[in-house]
Structure formats: structure tokens, C-alpha cells
Write a structure and sequence with these properties.
This protein is mostly helical. The chain has 18 helices and no strands. Among the domains are: 116 residues, Helix Hairpins, CATH 1.10.287.110; 102 residues, no CATH class; 87 residues, Helicase, Ruva Protein, domain 3, CATH 1.10.8. α1 packs across α2 and α15 packs antiparallel against α16. It starts with a helix and ends in a 13-residue tail after the last helix. GO terms for molecular function: Hsp70 protein binding; ribosome binding.
Length: 498
């Protein structure tokens, strides 16, 4: 039943109509229409009746010399015995039988049935909801000369103008089938129209070009209808229009890229890295675009070889020139887009701001460092000055103390010298010159050996002793004894204070 349903669908009829055709072709009588509509299979045939073997022709027995399975015939092995023959009912089946049933039911010849089926198939194709590959046909295109196939728009011929290089192989195949069914010369003849296969040849040529990957690329390379013209400055005055217009331009150009995927133009939120990658890609664009499609036809005859080489050289130069011009065109296009891209200005301003910020930070850091250095230097100078002043004060104080000590020593020396004079040089009467010299000699030796402290100690004792000659002499003797004990004087050097 699945095969019948598929056949009915291909013929454009219902399953019930298909079953009616089959029943009629077999000479069967339809008892109940609901039997067919219910999609119930035919009842099974009754079990076969036993066969009278006397009425059946069977395989003749083997010849008399047939060895069968034996030592003389080792290659023969009986696997099983034949089953008894039975009656089997054979039903016609398949597309050929269904076509036969259709011709018999409608009383058609082979040619009539083929023509009617082709027309019905074309009608079904036209009625299919294929809006995606359906577009109005230009009368001028229908009147094209098939010889001028290079100048025709192959996508428009097949009704794929809105798809162009994006058209899939399946869409091309479907569009070609639809156009062939519509414009086939046989259909025009059957409809009583003038036999003209020029546009049909255009269809075939378009199909040939677009189904050959190499030829299709060559045509796509020169398909100006797929190009998107760059916008003017006025058209992209607004940022939203800039991204929309230029994105369409680069999307069109991206079809020629050997490297996929192609970076997008992006929008105002794109990062600097994304924008830089986009322009780097297009400034180093790797294009497969070629211009062989525009070549002048090279004669294929063996005569005029020089002319043939001339045409080939001319075509090569023309392709090279077009390639150079296309490269320059694309570079200018990228330059124009870059010049109007506000993001570049924004990134430049951000870079300058960052640069100025770093410069300002550097200047502030240098200023701070200089201030700290100046402050440290001033502090060092202040401390040095204070130290110098303190040292000066201390020096002055030391100098005064030293002078004071010196003055004290002088005073004490005077006191010491005066003390012996006050006690009459320790003599009871007027001392002799020798006695005076002896006392003063010991006094000078003491003063020469004693330090200021020892001198001061002696003066203190002399002040206590007053003019008591005995006490004064004892004070001197103790003082000189201390110097002798310290090794500063020799006892033998003293005459009076021993």
C-alpha cells in the first residue's frame, strides 16, 4: 500500500483514485467504495489446493549411468530433496505496471500518456509553493539570443537574482528543473506556440555555468549585480547608517576571500582589537577573484597560431590589469571606510588621553621626587647647619672653658706661689736666697708636673691651711708625694717638700 500511496502522490491523484485504476486494469468489480477508502488490503487468497502430480510436468529422472552420491562421483552431495509443487498467485507490481494501468484505464497510447504526464508534472511544479526561487521573468531576457550567453545574467535566467553567489546547489537544481518544465520546446509545441528554443538554451547554459564550481567562480568574479557600491559621506553621516551601509559593502566583497570566516565591521561597541583585526584583514586581503570570464574567445583551429598566441597574451594582460585595478579599488574602499570610522578617532583620543595621563603622572612623580629631594636636602642642610652651630657653640664654650681652666690654672699657680711667700718660705726669720730658691724650685717642679685637678686640690688645701706654715708645707708635701707616687716627679729632685 505504501508503493500505491507514493505512486498516487507522484501522479497527483488520491489513493482511492489509484486503487480504482488498479482494480479497473485487472478487470475487477468494485463492490464497496468504503472498502477502498478504508485503505484495507485485499483479502488473502484461499490456501492452494493439492496438486495432482500426474497432471504436473516434472524434471525427468537422471540417466541410467548417473552415479549420484558415491565414490565414483565424490563432488556430488545431496543437500535436500525437492518440495512438492504448489499453485502460486502472481500479482503485477511496480511503476511500469502502474503506468500500464493508467494507460489502459484512460485509453491512451504511450506517446499520449508521456505528453500528458509531462504537462501534469510541469503544472504541479508551477503550482508548488517555491516562492524562494520564483521571480518575474523580464521579456527582454526571454528574447535573448543564446549565442550571447556571456552577457546574460545566469542567476536571473534561473530566477535566482536575489540569491546570486549565495544560491545553494539544491536551489540551482530546483530552479533549473522548474525553468526547463516551463520553457521546454516540446511544451511550446504542444501548446501550439512558435517553436523557439533560444531561451531554453540560455537556461541550459546558465545551469552549465552555475553547476561547474570553476565556471561559477569565474562568473561570480565579474557578477556586478552582486556588488554593493560604497556609500557617500552624506549617507553615513549617522553612526548607525555607517555600520549598516559599510557592513553590506564588506559582506559583498567577502565572497572573494580565500580566508574564512571574514571579520565583521562590528559596531560602536567593538573593541580596539576587533577593529584593528578587521582593517588588518582587509589591508592584507587574500582574494581568489579572477577575470577569465571576460576573456576574448581564443580560436581553436590549427590555423593562425600567431593570432591565437596574440589573443592569449592579450587576455593574460587584460586579466592582470583588471586584477591590479580591483586591488586598488578595494584598497581605496578600505581607506574610505577607515577615514569615516569614528571608532578610530575615539581610540586615538583614548590613546592620547592615556598618553597624556601617563605623561602627567610622570611629571607629577618627577615633581614629587624633586620636592622630596629638595626637602631632604634642605633638612640635611638644616641639620648640618644646626650641627655646625652646635659645634661652634660647643667650640666656643670649650674655648671659654679652656680659657677659664687656663685662667684658673694661672690663678691657682699664683695662689701656690703666693702661699709660700705668705709663710715666709717656711723660714722663722728672714729667709736666705738659697732657702727661697729651694722652695720656689720645688714649687716650679710641682707646677710643671701637676695637672689642673691636682693643682686645684692643692689650692683647696692651701686655702684651708691659710698662713699656717706647717699646714702649708704638709699640703705641699702631700701634693708632691702624690706626683712622686704617680711617677711624675722624682723624690730626689725635691729639696723641701719630701
Amino acid at each position: 500500500m505504501d508503493d500505491i500511496a507514493e505512486w498516487a502522490e507522484s501522479e497527483g491523484i488520491t489513493v482511492e483514485e489509484a486503487l480504482l485504476l488498479i482494480f479497473e486494469s485487472r478487470g475487477l468489480e468494485i463492490i464497496d467504495d468504503e472498502y477502498i477508502a478504508a485503505f484495507i488490503p485485499l483479502p488473502e487468497s484461499p490456501p492452494p489446493e493439492p496438486v495432482d502430480m500426474a497432471e504436473v510436468e516434472t524434471v525427468p529422472p537422471p540417466p541410467a549411468d548417473w552415479k549420484g552420491e558415491s565414490e565414483q562421483n565424490p563432488s556430488f552431495h545431496a543437500i535436500a530433496s525437492l518440495s512438492p509443487p504448489v499453485h502460486r498467485k502472481i500479482e503485477p507490481y511496480g511503476a511500469a505496471f502502474l503506468a500500464h494501468a493508467r494507460r489502459k484505464a484512460h485509453g491512451r497510447t504511450f506517446s499520449e500518456d508521456d505528453r500528458i504526464q509531462a504537462a501534469a508534472k510541469a503544472k504541479r511544479t508551477e503550482d508548488e509553493d517555491d516562492g524562494e526561487i520564483s521571480e518575474p521573468e523580464d521579456p527582454m531576457m526571454l528574447a535573448r539570443d543564446a549565442k550571447d550567453w556571456r552577457g546574460q545574467d545566469h542567476y536571473a535566467v534561473l530566477g535566482l537574482s536575489k540569491y546570486r553567489y549565495k544560491a545553494t546547489d539544491e536551489q540551482i537544481k530546483k530552479a533549473h528543473r522548474k525553468k526547463v518544465l516551463k520553457h521546454h520546446p516540446d511544451k511550446k509545441t504542444a501548446a501550439g506556440q512558435e517553436e523557439n528554443d533560444s531561451f531554453f538554451k540560455c537556461i541550459q547554459k546558465a545551469h552549465e555555468i552555475l553547476t561547474d564550481p570553476v565556471k561559477r567562480r569565474q562568473f561570480d568574479s565579474v557578477d556586478e549585480a552582486a556588488d554593493v557600491d560604497p556609500p557617500s559621506k552624506k549617507e553615513v553621516s549617522k553612526p548607525s547608517a555607517f555600520y549598516k551601509k559599510w557592513s553590506a559593502v564588506f559582506e559583498s566583497e567577502a565572497r572573494f576571500s580565500n580566508k574564512q570566516p571574514v571579520p565583521k565591521l562590528g559596531d560602536d561597541n567593538s573593541t580596539q582589537e576587533e577593529v584593528d583585526n578587521f582593517y588588518d584583514f582587509w589591508y592584507n586581503f587574500d582574494s581568489w577573484r579572477t577575470f577569465e570570464y571576460l576573456d576574448e574567445d581564443v580560436p581553436d583551429d590549427n590555423e593562425g597560431r600567431d593570432h591565437k598566441r596574440h589573443i592569449e597574451k592579450k587576455n593574460a594582460n587584460a586579466r592582470k590589469k583588471r586584477k591590479t585595478e580591483d586591488t586598488a579599488r578595494l584598497r581605496k574602499l578600505v581607506d574610505d571606510c577607515l577615514a569615516g570610522d569614528e571608532r578610530i578617532k575615539k581610540f586615538r583620543q583614548q590613546k592620547n588621553a592615556q598618553k597624556n595621563k601617563k605623561k602627567l603622572e610622570k611629571e607629577l612623580a618627577a615633581k614629587k621626587e624633586a620636592e622630596e629631594k629638595a626637602k631632604a636636602q634642605a633638612e640635611a642642610e638644616r641639620l648640618q647647619k644646626e650641627a655646625e652651630e652646635k659645634a661652634k657653640v660647643e667650640k666656643e664654650a670649650g674655648k671659654k672653658e679652656k680659657q677659664k681652666a687656663k685662667d684658673a690654672v694661672k690663678k691657682n699657680k699664683r695662689v701656690v706661689r703666693a702661699s709660700v711667700k705668705d709663710v715666709n718660705y717656711f723660714a722663722a726669720a728672714e729667709p736666705s736666697a738659697q732657702e727661697v730658691d729651694a722652695v720656689l724650685d720645688d714649687v716650679d717642679k710641682f707646677l710643671g708636673a701637676a695637672d689642673p685637678d691636682q693643682l686645684a686640690d692643692l689650692v683647696a688645701k692651701l686655702n684651708v691651711a691659710g698662713k699656717d706654715a706647717g699646714k702649708v708645707k704638709v699640703a705641699f708635701s702631700e701634693a708632691t708625694g702624690g706626683l712622686v707616687g704617680a711617677g711624675k716627679l722624682k723624690e730626689s729632685d725635691l729639696k723641701v717638700f719630701k
